[in-house]
Task: inverse folding
């Protein structure tokens, strides 16, 4: 855990940062927002061609096989400029779902499509405004050799634009049998799928999704692996918890990137802006606030790195892999909570330390602030993850 | 295939430790059993004496110092192996020493050859216990404002002044000391000297703290004669040495972690506050404990990240000043929560009717208030981060 970057990873970091800074700076998000588009399809094709989407997809399934730490490096770079693209929901969440829950045939069929960016996914998990893994009411009922899905999902990231929706539902394998959680890959164009786009403060697409009698073939139920180990109760939930933990860790990497970039912007302003005949960064009251943010960022970086490394370490079948696997839930909550707290602090301080300009729409701090709150809330707020950490430790 | 030199070193080390580390030295250390060495050393038992003698003889109390000065002469890789092997058998640190942690490293860098030969071997063996004469009543955070006078009297220096917060001065044999040799320059008028605490004119007086303990002293220096060969570095060149030593000090404080209670925070809270439906009955306390423990984990992961970076030659200078700041605030937070978790049982002072661990927690909690003051206040550490790491300017 917490390994220094390898040479390959350093090169990846350089190329990802360079690409996003040039091709998708914050001004690109602003342009998409002003044009009323959630993201730029051409940019997405380029991101996929660079191999970023398939960073965590094994080579035999069309990816680069560089692993979760590598994907985290890409997500962090994307977070720096608030890149609006399906990268998180497809390259992170979609890939995690298929790898963790898909059987061999499903992995072989779906992963190449995800890595190439031709299929984009959106995880439809929560059904309310708060993250609630135990609050799922969506139902899947056996019908012939397939399934029939009915229910409603709320606040689905990329829900309005993804080609496929990953729907969690309570499913009874046979009439009268106990229901377990299952994940279905639903074609967004299928009859019975109704999507209502939501205009969120961060200008990124979300949607409420209603499924009415949607038919899904059984080979679109991700059902491969049940050996993931879990603090949840049934096997389907165990796999899903792993998917959520990977999503939380990847989101934490994206949040770290956003916080780090916004801090850098703010630090430059402290050195540049002059009042009372000197740079405002010469005032100790502001220096200490900057120093505290720096300490916070460094602690968060360690947590995100350790969590990503644990995901890679958990891949082998050996004893070390088992030890890493056992650490994933605690590290995921640690990374998500800390990244959330750090981004919260930095996004508020950035507005305040920039003074009036921080309040203007023309300045980037507001875009970071709005995006920050969405990321902080998604898949569990810092408070939610503190509660989970306490539960994991038995108090 | 023959084993690599490092593997050979590991197997030899393992064999030597198996034969030479007494079983009693493979148990957790409590604070009363710490060995500080010195002219009149105090050992909790014969095994502790034996352990120090054996480790000192090999130079493994200072594994990376050159052999010429009594050190172990180990490469960084060999030292890492030694530390791993010591940890593997839970071996106690044989010697706690300001000589090892602070004075030795700067003497290696700034001292003359005769000085190194004279003082380093005794540090390695734990034969001389050193103390640090830095702060003065009028020079705390503004350390360079120190006023202890050191005059050139031809064949010797004559020192007059007062030091304060001198850790264990009443138990130390020698002092390394910052003195003023030029009153016309602030930073450029400071020199670094050392002297025997038995020199006439040296007097120490312990200071009782709010915790009831007296780890610090006032040290009075009246017409103390110091031989000229006991000046380290050049005359008026002491500030550079002083700053370097502070870096070593802050690192040793944060990586050795502050003295803490043996009580586990979550376990103590569970027992004292109780559980309702598997959760701590006080939900507000519960979330603050969770936040504190997560912060602790983040800190430990950061220490490990820095160590891993350093092993591959990465630059971790930007991380050093944050460790002391973060370690101090974490220790304080944890002990506040511990005392709160124990309720009034965590506020006992002495005598019967209290759990022994809870009594210790009270004292640790009070002692921890000093963590953000000693070795550079938290505010000074934030200044260092702001100026040296973030490059923020000085005020006009």
Result:
């Amino acid at each position: 855990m917490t390994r220094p970057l390898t040479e390959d990873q350093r090169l990846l970091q350089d190329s990802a940062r360079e690409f996003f800074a040039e091709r998708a700076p914050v001004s690109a998000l602003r342009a998409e927002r002003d044009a009323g588009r959630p993201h730029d399809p051409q940019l997405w094709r380029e991101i996929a061609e660079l191999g970023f989407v398939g960073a965590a997809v094994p080579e035999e399934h069309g990816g680069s096989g560089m692993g979760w730490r590598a994907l985290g490096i890409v997500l962090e770079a994307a977070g720096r400029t608030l890149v609006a693209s399906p990268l998180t929901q497809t390259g992170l969440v979609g890939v995690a779902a298929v790898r963790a829950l898909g059987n061999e045939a499903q992995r072989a069929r779906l992963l190449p499509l995800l890595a190439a960016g031709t299929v984009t996914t959106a995880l439809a998990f929560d059904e309310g405004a708060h993250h609630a893994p135990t609050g799922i009411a969506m139902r899947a009922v056996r019908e012939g050799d397939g399934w029939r899905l009915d229910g409603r999902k709320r606040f689905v990231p990329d829900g309005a634009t993804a080609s496929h929706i990953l729907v969690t539902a309570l499913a009874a394998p046979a009439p009268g049998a106990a229901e377990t959680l299952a994940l279905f890959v639903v074609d967004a164009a299928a009859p019975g799928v109704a999507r209502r786009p939501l205009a969120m403060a961060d200008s990124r697409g979300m949607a409420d999704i209603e499924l009415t009698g949607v038919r899904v073939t059984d080979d679109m139920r991700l059902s491969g692996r049940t050996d993931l180990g879990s603090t949840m109760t049934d096997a389907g939930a165990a796999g899903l918890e792993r998917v959520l933990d990977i999503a939380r860790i990847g989101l934490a990497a994206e949040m770290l990137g956003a916080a780090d970039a916004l801090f850098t912007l703010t630090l430059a302003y402290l050195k540049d802006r002059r009042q009372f005949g000197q740079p405002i960064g010469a005032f100790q009251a502001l220096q200490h606030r900057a120093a505290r943010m720096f300490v916070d960022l460094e602690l968060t970086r360690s947590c995100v790195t350790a969590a990503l490394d644990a995901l890679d370490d958990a891949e082998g079948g050996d004893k070390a892999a088992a030890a890493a696997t056992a650490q994933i839930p605690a590290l995921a909550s640690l990374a998500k909570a800390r990244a959330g707290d750090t981004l919260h602090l930095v996004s508020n301080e950035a507005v305040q330390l920039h003074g009036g300009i921080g309040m203007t729409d023309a300045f980037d701090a507001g875009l970071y602030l709005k995006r920050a709150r969405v990321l902080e809330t998604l898949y569990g707020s810092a408070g939610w993850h503190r509660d989970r950490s306490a539960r994991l430790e038995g108090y | 295939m023959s084993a690599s030199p490092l593997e050979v070193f590991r197997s030899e080390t393992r064999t030597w430790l198996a034969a030479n580390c007494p079983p009693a030295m493979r148990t957790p250390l409590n604070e009363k059993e710490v060995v500080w060495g010195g002219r009149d050393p105090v050992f909790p038992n014969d095994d502790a004496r034996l352990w120090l003698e054996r480790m000192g003889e090999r130079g493994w109390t200072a594994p990376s110092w050159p052999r010429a000065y009594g050190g172990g002469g180990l490469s960084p890789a060999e030292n890492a192996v030694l530390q791993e092997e010591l940890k593997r058998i839970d071996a106690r640190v044989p010697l706690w020493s300001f000589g090892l942690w602070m004075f030795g490293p700067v003497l290696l860098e700034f001292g003359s050859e005769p000085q190194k030969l004279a003082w380093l071997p005794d540090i390695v063996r734990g034969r001389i216990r050193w103390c640090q004469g830095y702060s003065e009543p009028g020079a705390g955070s503004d350390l360079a404002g120190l006023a202890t006078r050191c005059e050139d009297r031809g064949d010797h220096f004559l020192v007059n002044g007062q030091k304060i917060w001198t850790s264990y001065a009443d138990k130390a044999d020698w002092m390394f000391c910052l003195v003023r040799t030029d009153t016309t320059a602030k930073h450029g008028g400071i020199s670094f000297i050392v002297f025997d605490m038995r020199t006439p004119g040296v007097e120490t007086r312990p200071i009782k703290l709010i915790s009831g303990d007296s780890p610090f002293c006032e040290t009075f220096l009246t017409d103390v004669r110091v031989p000229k060969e006991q000046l380290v570095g050049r005359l008026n060149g002491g500030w550079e040495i002083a700053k370097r030593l502070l870096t070593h000090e802050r690192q040793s404080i944060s990586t050795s972690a502050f003295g803490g209670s043996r009580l586990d925070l979550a376990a103590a809270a569970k027992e004292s506050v109780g559980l309702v439906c598997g959760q701590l009955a006080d939900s507000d306390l519960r979330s603050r404990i969770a936040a504190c423990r997560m912060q602790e984990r983040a800190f430990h992961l950061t220490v490990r990240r820095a160590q891993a970076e350093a092993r591959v030659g990465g630059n971790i200078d930007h991380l050093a000043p944050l460790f002391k700041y973060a370690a101090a605030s974490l220790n304080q937070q944890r002990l506040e929560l511990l005392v709160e978790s124990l309720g009034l049982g965590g506020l006992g002072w002495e005598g019967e009717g209290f759990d022994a661990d809870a009594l210790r927690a009270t004292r640790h909690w009070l002692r921890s208030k000093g963590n953000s003051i000693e070795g550079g206040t938290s505010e000074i550490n934030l200044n260092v981060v702001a100026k040296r790491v973030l490059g923020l300017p000085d005020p006009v």
Q: What stands out?
A: The beta strands of chain B are 130-133, 149-152, 156-167, 174-180, 190-196, 202-207, 216-227, 231-232, 275-276, 279-280.
